[in-house]
Amino acid sequence: MNETALDKIFIRDLRARCILGIFPEEREKPQEILLNIVLWADLRNAGESDSIGDTVDYKRVKQQVLALVEASSCFLVERLAREVARVCLDAPHVARVTVTLDKPGALRFARSVAVEITRSKSGA
Fold first, then answer.
1. What pLDDT was estimated at residue 4?
2. Residue 2 to residue 107: CA distance in whole angstroms
3. Catalytic residue among 29, 59, 62, 103
4. For residue 124, what pLDDT is reported?
5. What is residue 69's predicted lDDT score, i.e. its pLDDT?
6. What angle do CA 24, 28, 30 make, to 5 degrees?
7. Per-residue DSSP letter, 66
8. Nearest CA-CA partner of 84 in 124, 29, 52, 41
9. Which residues contact 122 (CB under 8 A, 6 or more apart)?
10. What are the backbone dihedrals phi and psi of residue 65, each rounded to the nearest 5 degrees, phi first?
């Protein structure tokens, strides 16, 4: 796929709850995380056809991401971001994904700690 032909679909401020962290108190109950996802895909055919079959079904991607996150119990934010990226890359038409995963309240005096990763089908 031609990298210059890639467009972006944004899923912004997706909230989910999961077990995430290395400390015992973080492993006791789910905590809220915040996801921002950029799905890179060639959307030219969808613009022409006006057909869902020619684009990324972002509702389905969201449902799959939430199912993964809510069932997860990762120790590291990096691991969970990687797993979210993998799910997104499994979606038809997605060539690349950027996942930003925020863990609010992870550090005292900071609103959030976040990890951002970018993965592609060729290098996931």
1. 64
2. 41
3. 103
4. 46
5. 98
6. 125
7. H
8. 124
9. none
10. -65, -45
Q: For every one of its 124 residues, what pLDDT tens digit does the chain have, with 9 covering 90 and above?
A: 556 679 999 999 999 999 999 999 999 999 999 999 999 999 999 999 999 999 999 999 999 999 999 999 999 999 999 999 999 999 999 999 999 999 998 889 999 999 999 999 975 4
State whether the Cα torsion 62-65-71-73 is positive or negative.
negative
Strand ranges inside the chain, DSSP E: 7-20, 31-41, 73-74, 96-104, 112-120
CATH topology of domain 3-123: GTP Cyclohydrolase I, domain 2 (3.30.1130)
Judge whether 17 and 31 are in contact, CB under 8 Å: yes
Among this protein's residues, is 103 annotated catalytic?
Answer: yes
Picking from 28, 20, 8, 10, the residue whose alpha carbon sits closest to that of residue 112 is 20
pLDDT at 5: 78
Contact in structure between 116 and 98 (CB atoms under 8 Å): yes
